[in-house]
Amino acid sequence: MPFFAYKGRDGRGQLVQGVLEGADSGTVAGQLFSIGVTPLDISPSAEPQRAGPGLLERLQQRKITHAEVLLFSRQMYTLLKAGVPIMGALKGLEESTENKSFARVIREIRESLDSGHELSASIGRHPGVFNLFYVSMVRVGELTGKLEEVFIRLFNHMDFERFMREQVRAATRYPTFVIAAMAIALVIINIFVIPAFAKVYAGFKAELPVMTKALIAFSNFTVTYWPALLAGLVVLVFGFRFYINTAPGRLAWDEFKLRIPVAGGIVLRATLARFARSFALAIKSGVPAVQALTMVAQTVDNEHVARKIDAMRESVERGESVLRSATATGVFTPLVLQMVAVGEETGALDELMTEIADMYQREVEYDLKNLAAQIEPILVVALGGMVLILALGVFLPIWDLGNAALSKK
Q1: What is the pLDDT of residue 55?
Q2: Contact between residue 110 and residue 91 where contact means Cβ atoms under 8 Å apart
Q3: Within 10 Å of residue 56's Cβ, how many Cβ atoms?
């Protein structure tokens, strides 16, 4: 829409001027009258140029976190429920937030509302802060007149997502820590321990076992070429991060995460719990199933599962039932599919999807409590194998030399 520069007088008779966006000058005049300004002159204008943050301000900016958007949703619900107008609510939140980056986003949302845009369109201008699902749900709230109810549902939904992400991180924290500790120990042994033993064995001038020769050769290679190995590791890490940020890489990595022994099943159930909760929220808010599936595919945080949901959407668009579409994906258990069937037959699909989300959540919590018991045997075997190789390689020559010395007596 075009922009118009205006001059006018407020309720106290003071001159005010600025630039507003509108379909025509009449629309802009209506906006001015609605905020208590009597227009004196309205003329076409170029889009105003907002000064971006300076270098120092950019360096001091904090990232807008999931928790801050979560709190924003809860506060919007509380303020709207109390009868505070949207502009007043946003003004209060802008002044109270400690994150200057988020305060700037809220200010730009207010300015967009001032220009005549709807709240959903204003929020949609910040996709890095509010995802497609969030914007769509706000749009539904505007259309149904239940904006405050949508905000509390979004708060509950985002709180559930935060909980599930923390659960998944907890599922992978313990094995990651143990594997990292084993890798560090292996590096230390290769650089400091084995070279010391190698000097001792060199003084014996005896034939060494194959295992010991292999360990010494690997240690010598590590000590000699550690700069190249370190550089290769850095390149590998950054290359991996670049790869998973591409569409094929993200898909391959997300598929691999679901196939990891023990932890993969937990990640899948957590992802499906988020899907079920998001789908239930959209259906309960009056969003059609096809549109709801489109929205939900953006929230599951797993490209492989998102493509399965897109396949469900295409199937529903062709006239298939949600049950048949869900069955074709191959990711839901028979019990879940039975619950979907009951939900479709009774017209209570949103309630049954909520039950499915609760069921998956309970399964994830149970699996996490037993995760240590499931992973410990695998880690113990891996650690034992590493210790056995090192022990045989380091102490077998000493054993052979001791036996040789005893046989000469």
Answers
A1: 47
A2: yes
A3: 8
